[in-house]
Specification:
Helix 3 crosses helix 7. This protein has eleven helices and eight strands. It is elongated, with a radius of gyration of 25 Å. It is of the alpha+beta class. The protein has two domains: about 45 residues, Helicase, Ruva Protein, domain 3 (Orthogonal Bundle), CATH 1.10.8; about 150 residues, 2-Layer Sandwich (Tetrahydropterin Synthase, Chain A). It comes from Kineosporia babensis.
């Protein structure tokens, strides 16, 4: 019989998060050797991770860090809201965010491949989290924004869940409205910063749809050009940030708010868990 005690099982459970029976089996298979038992559980956990690859991650949380004109935003997903509310998931989220800040990550792939102080990659950290928590954990998105002023905003879609909507907004200078606009982006998500950033094929498609709709409605042929341009303009007002009506003052556009503050918009990112 393997030489281990109840205290050994507890120690292994506390350090790995594995179930009691799994810890007992690991100690049996490892003849009571703690380090070998940890390795045994990791190997078993990796097999479990492979089985979870096809599962859907529709829950999770966002996290952000801003400092000295740099903002970092990440989205870490899991399978259930129960896990997303847990301490282990919160710890993983913070570890990944800290690493993203440290290595100046701007995309998922580079962050997953980066090495932590203990020699593991972020992917390895998440694989261990998969094994410990028992759910698929997936780094869904990473963004890095640099500007003279950067604000973040995290929004809870439910009071009992962690933030599931995250925004970074960068502007040309400091102002109280920078965070207000970040909040606006969370509430009224734009797709583009300005109309100039809308791809030409998207604009052309909007024109085609607007014209077809107007014809279907029986609008006069001579009025079609004006109607089409009006509807395309409406598309810009809904989807280009600076042309949207400001959430806190519908009498102003975001551009007007920026002009009054004497600053310009530089860029933004918006993540929503499960979207």
């Amino acid at each position: 019989m393997a030489n281990y005690t109840a205290a050994d099982v507890k120690k292994l459970r506390d350090s790995t998060g594995a179930g009691m029976l799994d810890c007992k089996n690991a100690l049996v298979e490892s003849d009571g050797d703690y380090d070998k038992a940890v390795e045994y559980l990791r190997v078993k956990g990796q097999k479990g991770v492979a089985k979870r690859e096809s599962r859907t991650t529709s829950q999770g949380a966002v996290a952000a860090h801003t400092e000295a004109g740099v903002g970092v935003l990440i989205e870490l997903d899991c399978e259930t809201d129960f896990v997303s509310k847990g301490e282990k998931f919160a710890t993983l989220l913070q570890q990944v965010l800290d690493q993203a800040v440290a290595v100046k990550a701007a995309d998922v792939d580079s962050l997953l491949k980066s090495e932590l102080a203990d020699g593991r990659t972020v992917q390895g950290l998440l694989d261990d989290g998969n094994a410990s928590i028992g759910e698929k954990i997936e780094l869904r998105a990473v963004a890095r924004l640099e500007a003279p002023a950067v604000a973040s905003y995290l929004h809870r879609t439910s009071p009992d869940l962690p933030p599931q909507v995250g925004v970074l907004f960068g502007a040309s200078g400091e102002s109280d409205v920078v965070r207000d606009i970040a909040m606006h982006i969370a509430a009224l998500p734009p797709k583009f910063l300005t109309r100039d950033q809308v791809p030409a094929d998207v604009v052309e498609n909007e024109r085609r749809v607007a014209e077809a709709t107007a014809r279907e409605e029986g609008k006069p042929e001579g009025a079609l050009p004006k109607i089409v341009e009006g509807r395309v303009s409406g598309f810009f007002k809904e989807n280009a940030l600076v042309e949207q009506k400001f959430a806190k003052d519908q009498g102003k556009t975001v551009q007007k708010v920026l002009d009054e503050a004497g600053i310009t918009a530089v860029g933004f990112y918006r993540f929503r868990v499960g979207v």
